[in-house]
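Page 37, top half.
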Amino acid sequence: MRLGIRANLAQFSLLVAVNALVGGMLGQERTVLPLLAEQTFHLTGYTFLLTYVLAFGLTKAATNYFAGTWSDRFGRKPVLLAGWLIALPVPLLLIWAPSWAWVIVANVLLGINQGLTWSTTVIMKIDLAGPERRGLAMGLNEAAGYVAVAATALATGYLAAQHGLRPAPFLLGLSYAALGLGLSVFAVRETRDHAHLEAAQHERRGELTDREVFTRTSLTEPALSSASQAGMVNNLNDGLAWGLFPILFSTAGLSVARIGILAALYPAVWGLGQLVTGPLSDRWGRKQLITAGMLVQAAALAVIAAASSFTVWASAAVLLGIGTAMVYPTLLASIGDVAHPAWRARAVGVYRLWRDGGFAIGAILAGMIADVWGVRAAVWVVAAVTAFSGLVVALRMYETHPRRTGTLPRGTR
């Protein structure tokens, strides 16, 4: 047994493919569900419309935490399998939903599915990759997931335009769930022993309790807590894009097909960009990419708030994707740098708890502001919050990549 992407290429590549299916489960909703809320269920209040994002964000955030703890206790593969089993009823609920309550239930299950499966594929790739190429590993993982989000958003937009909002778009999600479960049962192997191998190469240190891991990752350790707040704000942005952007574009008179293009463009650039930014963080370090990425996202959101044409929105979506790509794999890599292998899975779980809590906070914040002052005002507020988050990283976070610092990160000592 050895550490490294090349030494574990077959299993690593399989996990990349599995995470693409995880992303596809999320992508089935991005174009169609806001339109379904407005056109089929006739929801008018933005806050109520965003309840599905709130339900998803709360359950995914909580499940992320337990996924890390359970991965340490029971192993990675059982958690992955549980996540895929929970995914199976999601597209069926969306196809048959007679009321919005069914959609909320589907998004609760989707949040649990995403928390268990995406968290576990992240942990398993960190286990396999070892310390030197963590940025590349996270870039490949997140690229696979978000390219699949984009491709599925585009495909469901096309299917909805040709065949209606239901059932055709959600049949893709059903096929993803079946294939993901099959691969996880028959092909994915346990990786927890790789984490034990890396832990043996570190200085010996006492095990941390769950409470100590939570406190360190959330508040007291500068790099871990800075990453947690930046991740939360990043997904606050994504919750805004998921829930309100299609409505903003629709009120400007764009067709369903064009809304599908815009809904796909941002995660496509985000996903593909991580193939570049993940390895760059191994070369340049983590801090500067995270800081710059948050500021680029803020600028892109400001352009979206001010614009009113497809061309400008498309350019801003590309810019938003670039900024998110700079941040997303780099934050995960920084968590892997600082957290000791003995408690790293739990630290990833806590980080993802805060990060995906951003969906819920974004749904509440954006929905309330949109109800009172309109969608554009909500986008302006989130742009300001994102810029402030970037400044927090610039002032508080230290560089975490061991090759850049020449020492072990503080959290591993």
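Page 37, bottom half:
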Amino acid sequence: MYEFASKLTIPLVPIINRPLDKAQSINGTLLPEGFVGLYVDQLPLNPWVSSEHCNGHDVLVFASTWRSTHAVLSLDVQARKLSRHSPVDGTASYSVISASGDLVVATKSTPAQPPVLVLGRASKPADSTQIAIQWHDIGKPQDTGLEWCIVPGDRDSCESIFVYPAKHSAATRYFWTDSNPESRPLVVQPHGGPHSAYTLDFSPMTAALVQLGFGVLLVNFTGSLGFGQDAVLAQIGQCDTLSLNEIQHAARAVQQSGGGDPAATVYVGGSYSGYTGALLAGTAPGFYRGIALRNPVISIGENAAMTDIPDWCWAELGLDYDFANPPEITPQAFAKMWDASPSRLVDRVVDPMLLLLGASDRRVPHQQSLNYYYRLKAAAKADVQCKIYPDVGHPLDTIEAERDSFVSIARFFAKSLGK
């Protein structure tokens, strides 16, 4: 908060290193139990609730990543109080669209339910210090035939969302050929970044894979947002080891619980999770029956010379980067980048692989993946395919690229699994 009279900038919400085990006041702001810090993608179009409905206080309403969900939070500026207004048990994700007067318009979804509109009415009774928001569903939830659960990780800074078909059906027969859950194929899908997160928001791609008969494991490894700043920083310097171990631990946990077939486990990832997928192809050959990668980081040293965010290549390895005086890629720096890159493991890859690349990708330029593809073809140990989409960037988010990449992944998995 900036005070024009005193010309002072006052932090209202501090950085939280570890989730709070109880409600407490830090630097004058009261924070709720379990608070993990603020991780806000974007503020709503109008985030302010009318002060006349909040006893004259300025109240900001928004959604923030809180472990594996999006939670609605309010910040009472005068009272210096942060409150949560969505279920604390993480049964749904909320996204705030806008506020008007005492009304808050948002959406609510889960991995099994597409978003529905919800309307909240905000108030602050004169005898209360707590902002209250009463929610009312506007849209009607749709039955998708999906179920989901949270899978704990091997430490508190990581967990996964497992989405699977509620029952065997005519649609799921394409990949799940009987009603035994242990025979159901498993898709392991970590997120990119690495400093982003999967939440309980509905994902059309995940839902489509589940409708075809897959169980889909969305992995939030240490370094994901929403688990405190210590978790974010723990990833630095360990990007080629820590997340790999946690991805494999999550996959084995589902396999051992009977949620997916170890002999029919496949992998899909993009950008950073394309990087981890390529690393796993070289460090855990045979674990995955097929590996589909979208614009993966293959050679960090090459990427550092071509990407529009070269600082990423340094920072994730724990190397210093000065924006005012960008460092040279010295032989020593390149050697460290090479040691952490999938490129060096190309001779160990034996699993079928599909590469999906955007020709106009500036974040992870596709030349490094093309070189990887040629080397895999030359090694002749793995069945490898490559598709390049012209005039498409890093997210592969044109309508045609999204359609074709999903169909290509489904067909690739069908071939890899012998379906």
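Margin note: The domain at 146-416 is CATH 3.40.50.1820 (Rossmann fold).
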